[in-house]
Amino acid sequence: MTKDIIVTKKAAEKILEMSKEEKKENFGLKLFVFPGGCSGLQYGMDFEEKASKDDLIFEQHKVKIFVEKNLIEHLKGTKIDYVETEQGSGFKIDNPNTTNSCSSCTGC
């Protein structure tokens, strides 16, 4: 089931670094999904001490990801990466289940 959510090695390294900085080394990363944005979805992430009873747990590269069971159909194959460019750095979430409906959307 780990192929439902894919965490790249670079993203995992950054997540582990951030969890250490925030003194949350044993926490998991909860992936949230909100309606909105060019693709129809926006994403958020936060450290959670433990998964809720409604969460599925995925683990890759020593990182635990928590996702609500009812969202997994919308997130199958989603890849979480960490990118660094001249414009800045941050997490990039690539969800193959959504399509970009804006012709001039940047940062979606």
Main traits of this protein?
alpha/beta; three-stranded mixed sheet; 2 helices; single chain; globular; Hypothetical Protein Aq_1857, Chain: A; disordered C terminus; 108 residues; four-stranded mixed sheet
* CATH 4th-level superfamily: HesB-like domain
Rg, Cα atoms, Å: 14 Å
The number of helical elements comes to 2
Number of strands: 7
Can you tell me the CATH topology?
Hypothetical Protein Aq_1857, Chain: A
Beta percentage is: 35-45%
Explain the overall architecture.
The chain is an alpha/beta fold. The chain has a single domain (5-94), classed as Sandwich (Hypothetical Protein Aq_1857, Chain: A). It is built from two helices and seven strands; from the N terminus they run βαββββαββ. The chain has helices at residues 9-21, 72-75, and strands spanning 5-7, 28-35, 41-48, 55-60, 63-68, 78-85, 88-94. The strands form two sheets. A four-stranded mixed beta sheet has the order 3-2-5-4. It has a three-stranded mixed beta sheet with strand order 1-6-7. A hairpin with a 5-residue loop joins strand 2 (28-35) and strand 3. The longest helix has 13 residues, at 9-21. The radius of gyration is 14 Å and the shape is globular. The two termini are 26 Å apart. Mean pLDDT is 86; it is low at 103-108.
Task: Please describe the topology of this protein.
Elements lengths: L4 E3 L1 H13 L6 E8 L5 E8 L6 E6 L2 E6 L3 H4 L2 E8 L2 E7 L14
Parallel strand pairs: 1-6, 2-5
Antiparallel strand pairs: 2-3, 4-5, 6-7
Short summary:
About 15% of the residues lie in helices and about 45% in strands.
